[in-house]
Amino acid sequence: MTAAIRDMNRHDIPAVATLEQAIYDSPWSVRVFYDELALANRRYIVAEEDETIVGYGGMLIVENDGHITTLAVDPRARRQRLGTRMMVSLIDVALEMGVSHVTLEVRMSNEAAQALYQRFGFAPVGLRKNYYRDEDALVMWANDIDGIDYQARMLGVRKELEAAGYG
Q1: At a CB cut-off of 8 Å and minimum separation 6, what does 145 contact?
Q2: Which helix (H) or strand (E) holds 2?
Q3: Are the beta carbons of 101 and 144 closer than 8 angstroms?
Q4: According to the model, what pLDDT value does residue 167 have?
Q5: The sheet that has 101-107: what strands, in order across it?
Q6: According to the model, what pLDDT value does residue 18 have?
Q7: Closest to 16 (Cα-Cα) out of 39, 34, 41
Q8: Are 161 and 84 in contact (CB under 8 A)?
Q9: Which pLDDT score is estimated for 100?
Q10: Spatial separation of the C-alpha atoms in residues 134 and 45, rounded to whole Å
Q11: Euclidean distance between CA atoms 118 and 112, whole angstroms
């Protein structure tokens, strides 16, 4: 079965927080997720398979800039293109909200995530020293996501997903 991607709701938060604790060394608390979900300029999604949350992602929007605050996939559900599918959803959210540019931070050691983000046109633009407890973060930006070139990139990603049976 393929995971469904949908908007996160408050009932998802306990499962999301449990997954967060399993994945990250410095996890967000349940309260942070409730607070984030309540803010008008935040949007969160979940990937759900067989009534189990197997991934989640979120975005902060300020004017025409978006910031991906989190993107996580349950290690047992990896290699199913969930990260790609959730990124498509987050970019769609950004476009719906009038965003032109999106940024994010990623661990310097997380080459798989960096490769995923590069598929979506994110390019390294800087470094945040000691962003994580034990590591620096690479800052990446995708510009002009509302432009024709970026939309062509997104069409290519969507076609790849469709060809792989995730359309």
Answers
A1: 91, 94, 95, 99, 100, 101, 102, 121
A2: none
A3: yes
A4: 67
A5: 4-7, 42-49, 52-62, 65-73, 101-107, 135-142, 123-132
A6: 95
A7: 34
A8: yes
A9: 97
A10: 27
A11: 10
Which DSSP helix (H) or strand (E) runs through 33? helix 30-38
Angle at 129 between CA 123 and CA 135, to 5 degrees: 90
What pLDDT was estimated at residue 1? 52
Cα separation, 107 vs 110, whole angstroms:
5
Q: What is the pTM of this model?
A: 0.93
| 110 vs 103: CA distance, rounded Å | 16
Tell me which residues of the chain have a pLDDT lower than 50: none
Q: Which domains does the chain have, with CATH numbers?
A: 4-163 (3.40.630.30)
Active site residues per annotation: 105, 117
Query: What is the model's pLDDT at position 78?
Result: 81
Q: In whole angstroms, give the CA distance from residue 166 to residue 61.
A: 27
Closest CA to 74 of 15, 19, 13: 19
